[in-house]
Amino acid sequence: MTLPTAPTDRDESIRITLALCLAGFSCFVLLYGTQPLLPQLSEAFAISPGTASLSVTVGTGAMALLLIPLSLVADRWGRERLMRFGLLGAALCALASAWAPDFFLLVVARGLLGACIAGVPAAAMAHLGEEVPGRARARVMGLYIAANALGGMAGRLLSAVVSDLTGSWHYGLAALGAIGLLVAIVFWRLLPPARHFEPRSLQPGLLVADIRRIYADPGLPWLFTTAFLSMGAFVGLYNYLPFRLVQPPYNFGPAVIGSIFLLYSVGTFSSAW
Asked: In 10 A of CB 219, how many CB atoms?
């Protein structure tokens, strides 16, 4: 007697959804963890606010620059493998940045963290598109984006609260690294093997044709520009706010400053909805 396959398919979809939501959550927990701590980093290393903000922008810049190259690697090398090693590498880089002896090494660790993270969103959306049934795809992608926003909020809030309680930014970043390491281990075991992945060629002619087709679309370049400008203003504003709120008349500590990132819950809800 042949057993029905539908429950297995549904179970696999649930595992894929949970695994990729955890991955998205972990990426943004790690990526923006230094943002509420910028005043503490500026004071600890005797650097200007602009220099301290490199701890955020180097990681996000590395991620942005490597998203497309790593998406091509994922198409050839395998998306599961890239996501697994990306999450593990990002967690280890986060732990290294927590105990960096000087600001230069901290920035190097944050840049490597962003490079590792780039492999996850580069592969996650394509993996969802291939492995999740079409009727559930939009809902699962919405949950994945919501998990990104939740991670961005949780990482900032947790690093600020732990740093405030312990009196050291080192412990705040170390706590995020520990969470990232735990998620990497769970993700490694939870994500089921891909059933529909087929490696693609990395021939230059095919890659150029793909890029040309994307930018020939009348709408996509405008979407890219909108995202670039919106995220630039968004991240820049949140880089500025901790320096303003730590000064009179506010005189807020790290935990209170971190609470402004609770506004992310709006994005988490709207993405899932």
From this structure: 7
Give this prediction's pTM.
Answer: 0.82
CA 106 to chain centre: 18
Closest by Cα among 158, 185, 9 to 98: 158
What confidence tens digit (pLDDT) does each residue in 175-196 have?
Answer: 999 999 999 999 999 988 767 6
Mean pLDDT to the nearest integer, 25-51 = 93
User: Is residue 223 over pLDDT 60?
Assistant: yes
Q: Is the pLDDT assigned to residue 38 strictly greater than 50?
A: yes
Query: In whole angstroms, what is the distance from residue 142 CA to residue 158 CA?
Result: 24
Collect all residues with Cβ–Cβ distance below 8 Å to 30 and sequence separation of at least 6. Answer: 90, 91, 94, 113, 117, 155, 176, 177, 180
| Nearest-angstrom CA–CA distance, 16 and 157 | 27
Residues 146 and 265: their CA atoms lie apart, in Å, by: 9
Angular region, 78: left φ>0, alpha ψ -120 to 50, beta rest: left
Residue 185: other Cβ atoms inside 10 A? 13
